[in-house]
Write a structure and sequence with these properties.
Layout: E1 6-13, H1 21-34, E2 40-42, H2 60-75, E3 81-90, E4 93-102, E5 105-111, E6 138-142, E7 145-149, E8 152-155, E9 160-165, H3 167-170, H4 175-181, E10 186-191, H5 199-214, E11 217-222, E12 237-242, E13 245-251, E14 258-265, H6 266-276, E15 287-290, H7 316-337, E16 342-345, H8 350-365, E17 373-377, H9 385-398, E18 402-404, H10 408-418, H11 427-448, E19 451-454, H12 458-463, E20 476-477, H13 484-497, H14 502-510, H15 525-528, H16 531-542, H17 548-559, H18 563-579, H19 581-585
Parallel strand pairs: 1-2, 2-3, 8-15, 9-10, 10-11, 16-17, 16-19, 17-18, 19-20
Antiparallel strand pairs: 1-14, 3-4, 4-5, 6-7, 8-9, 11-12, 12-13
Length: about 600
């Protein structure tokens, strides 16, 4: 069953009893029953026999016991799909295989294509490789039933998956490449991967890369430490990656047995594939085998971390990377134009504070004279003293001269010019102040041979929270690739770089977000809603291609919003986004930071007259 575009997959790593197939399949059935809400469960390589029995694989006693164990496994199978490692004899050759079992039937058998024959591995001594079955399938007899043997894709209308076995992943011509391009959403790898120092990092990296290149999910399940301690031990490593993102990573060296369930986002996988126009093609040599999804979920929760702040930068390294990108972009722009002067309006709010910090960083990094930073604070009819004082203190601390231009008298003159009642604090009251500030900054830039740096952030650009030809306009926008939640995080990070005066930055962070056009008590989030929620919606629309139903479902999980409130947030975002495309179409350049941007010359192709 697909739950709001998610499918539950199970990881089951049983305790291994070497050379005892009956005992092993009893553990397999027991573990499968523990995670009955999973649609598909993946077990390790050769889980029925154990991996480490060497020459005993070819003993008739072991073969007979394996056949009996498989019969027990099939008889006790359920509506879930089980992917279980076991040997298979075909034409007097022994193959290392994955059996795909559902509802008392073997759907198909996939042989291991590439057999390792190096260091601790000697599989060619025992098994035959399955390379002959990459481009053809045959039928094998399993307890009187003829079953497809070879490379297969298991499919239904919602989810296609393929299977490969351990070494297949590590090979330069990995079967997963063929399976992904043939349409598989998920690749399952049944594995028995040995432990050695640092191998887990390499294993994780390869799984990440496979899922990223295939624009799908990769589920890797290795035998547990209970397998053997004769010369080697197994890693017990299980990994789930999706579109290059690690969802689950457990290397269980201290655990003999465990199960887990992870939700894979099929909706996001499909969106990623549509947006890159990947060349998926049906491969006639790969058998297409139908299966059914479990239709009786008892658990509709999501077993994965849903990041409430998806634009946060998780490490100091990533924050420094963003600071470097923004500051170099600014330096390059100045070098290209051939000037070394910048005009910036500083209000003491989050956006202009970060812009001032970034400009200061740029000038210090690239050896520019900070006299070229022409900073202005322009108190208007609603400016609060606290934000203005923060702007003055920060500029003084950074060694930047901040000039004050009081615009109140000129704004009132403009009101009088157009017959505007200055007691009516409507949108015209606000916009005249924003436009006048931009006019003044542009005039100064002309006079001083400088450029005006804008401060509108990505969240404001998405929501149209700006005055057209006011703060919407500049000659280069430093913040246009940064959502509000990232702006806040970077200002907080700069506290660690300016620890002697981090009280100023903390004060900026503590103040309510406000344009201060009608008064210091004016709060932006009272009008447009919480930025954290709007950024969450923005991420899931433009990065993951989510529907309204999916976003409302996630808002309930992450922010505990009821259906009506979640719907209102989504509708407000989309209504504002569509209505304000005209502002983005005429906006200034700004460097791209995340996976997408609102640059209409590159990332965003969206009409200016679409309604919502």
């Amino acid at each position: 069953m697909i739950n709001n575009g998610f499918i539950k997959v199970g990881i089951a790593v049983p305790k291994v009893f070497l050379g005892n197939p009956i005992k092993n399949v009893e553990r397999i059935v027991e573990l499968a029953n523990r995670i009955s809400d999973a649609s598909i469960i993946c077990f390790p390589e050769l889980a029925v026999t154990g991996y480490s029995i060497g020459d005993w694989f070819n003993n008739q006693q072991l073969i007979d016991e394996t056949n009996e164990a498989l019969k027990y496994l099939i008889e006790n199978s359920t509506e879930q799909v089980w992917i279980v490692g076991a040997p298979c004899i075909y034409n007097d050759h022994n193959y290392n295989c994955a059996y795909i079992i559902q509802n008392k039937k073997v759907l198909g058998i996939v042989p291991k294509m590439y057999l390792p024959e190096y260091r601790e591995f000697y599989e060619k001594r025992i098994f035959h490789d399955g390379l002959a079955f990459l481009d053809q399938t045959v039928k094998v007899n399993v307890n009187g039933e003829m079953v497809t043997f070879g490379e297969c894709i298991f499919e239904n209308d919602n989810c296609k998956f393929g299977v490969e076995i351990c070494e297949d992943l590590w090979h330069i011509n990995s079967p997963n490449e063929l399976l992904y391009t043939a349409g598989a959403h998920i690749i399952f790898n049944v594995s028995a991967s040995t432990f050695h120092a640092n191998k887990g990092k390499r294993r994780l990296s390869i799984c990440e890369n496979a899922s990223f290149l295939g624009k799908g999910a990769y589920v890797y399940v290795s035998s547990s430490i209970s397998e053997t301690s004769s010369d080697v031990i197994m890693s017990g490593h299980s990994i789930v990656c999706e579109n290059g993102e690690v969802l689950y990573n457990k290397e269980a060296l201290g655990t003999e047995e465990y199960v887990d369930v992870i939700d894979i986002d099929l909706e996001s996988i499909n969106y990623a594939r549509r947006t890159i126009n990947m060349n998926y093609r049906r491969n006639a040599s790969i058998s297409q085998i139908p299966y059914n999804l479990v239709a009786n979920y008892q658990n509709t929760s999501i077993n994965r971390v849903i990041d409430p702040l998806p634009f946060t930068l998780k490490t100091d390294e990533s924050k420094e990377e963003v600071i470097s990108a923004v500051t170099y972009a600014l330096y390059h722009r100045l070098s290209h134009i051939g000037i070394k002067r910048i005009v910036l309006g500083v209000s003491g709010g989050l956006d202009s504070t970060l812009a001032l910090l970034m400009i200061n960083e740029c000038f210090e990094r690239y050896g520019l004279d900070k006299k070229g930073i022409l900073a202005y604070t322009m108190p208007g009819l609603g400016t609060g003293e606290k934000s203005k004082n923060n702007a003055c203190k920060l500029a003084e601390y950074l060694g930047i001269k901040l000039k004050t231009i009081d615009i109140k008298e000129e704004v009132l003159h403009h009101f009088n010019l157009i017959g505007k009642d200055d007691d009516n604090k409507d949108v015209t009251f606000e916009n005249i102040q924003a436009r006048y500030r931009t006019l003044v900054l542009m005039d100064i830039a002309n006079k001083e041979n400088a450029i005006v740096c804008g401060t509108s952030d990505m969240s404001e650009i998405a929501l149209g929270w700006s005055t057209f030809n006011g703060d919407q306009m500049s000659m280069y926008n430093l913040n246009g690739g940064l959502p509000k939640t990232t702006i806040k995080e970077l200002v907080s990070y700069f506290k660690t770089r300016h620890s002697n005066h981090n009280d100023i930055l903390q004060d900026v962070l503590d103040l309510p977000i406000s344009p201060e056009l009608t008064g210091s008590d004016q709060k932006t989030e009272d009008v447009i809603g919480k930025y954290e929620i709007n950024d969450f919606i923005m991420y899931h629309i433009f990065v993951r291609g989510a529907s309204k139903a999916r976003i409302c479902f996630l808002l309930n999980i992450v922010y505990n919003l009821n259906e009506n409130l979640a719907s209102n947030y989504y509708e407000n975002f989309m209504r504002r986004f569509c209505r304000n495309q005209f502002k983005r179409l005429t906006g200034p350049e700004s460097v791209k930071i995340f996976e997408f941007s609102f640059a209409c010359r590159s990332d965003l192709h969206f009409p200016g007259d679409m309604k919502h």
